[in-house]
Amino acid sequence: MSNQPIIITTKLKIGISACCMGCPVRYNAKGWDLVKSLGREKSDFVWVPVCPESMAGLGVPRNPIHVVGADGRAIWTNEAKVVNRGGAEVTDAVKAGASACMEALERADITAYIYMDGSPTCGVYRTTLKKQKRGNPPGVFGALLLDKGYFLIPASDLQSPLKWWDWRRRLLAFHWIKTVEIEDMKTLYAVWHQLKFICQELDEPWARALGKKLAAVNREAFMDFVEVFRSEIMMVLRKPSTPAKITNRLWKHYAHYRKASGKSIPEINEPTFKRNVTTIAGELIKMERAAVDDGILFGNTPVIYRHRKPDYDS
Predict the structure, then answer these.
(1) Domain boundary assignment for the chain
(2) Are the C-beta atoms of residues 26 and 51 closer than 8 Å to each other?
């Protein structure tokens, strides 16, 4: 590892609520193709769509369902139940559908899941639509997603270029720190150097504290520290950033890029320049491409996916 971006050439597998890929599996036989908002970037991932309510055998169309009791977690401890609009209990069927979907995600070995908030099954932080108040989050399937520790992305954020950029770059870093081997102190320091800039952006007080812990680690405590180190970074990478933080860091890293490469990117504006989130996302993507082409670490995006071209000479 060095002062260059980490390049991932294997497509990440992402689970997704099937209705978000346009599958007409909602209770009213509708769905939304939110993934199309990603444009060509859609092909950078392998998608694994699932629908707990369809796998429950409830059919399409169907009566909408809701949780009666504390929340979706209580379903799994038999302290709540799921009923449909007609009053029929469908708890066992929904649990079976959620379990079947989780088994499919585990077989696929996914890294992340894109969930539909507002669903009594897939919802993570909200399980009702509009201003209805029926049950508390998480949903029945959402509870399993949280317990599994997946990198969770709300489907609505796929429609915002800047929010998706933020999720995507944190997801790639999350996947890398989850899988990278850290066998000695030298590698530990190198991994922190690679990720410290994005961690500082997301939570600077925490990053400073971790840096001090890292400096004080002795070889006897190395293995225990590595697992804490990995776990804490994965937790911080789940935190969304803000446009202000992103643009300030972009300008800071762009200054480093200009100094290191002797090149400039005219499209990148100062943080105080007024522009919309689509323009900011475009600037970030240009910065990413330039950093990869010139082999310079862009701290905002320390891990990059690039399609591996076929080797026709082999």
Answers:
(1) 9-158, 161-169+178-314
(2) no
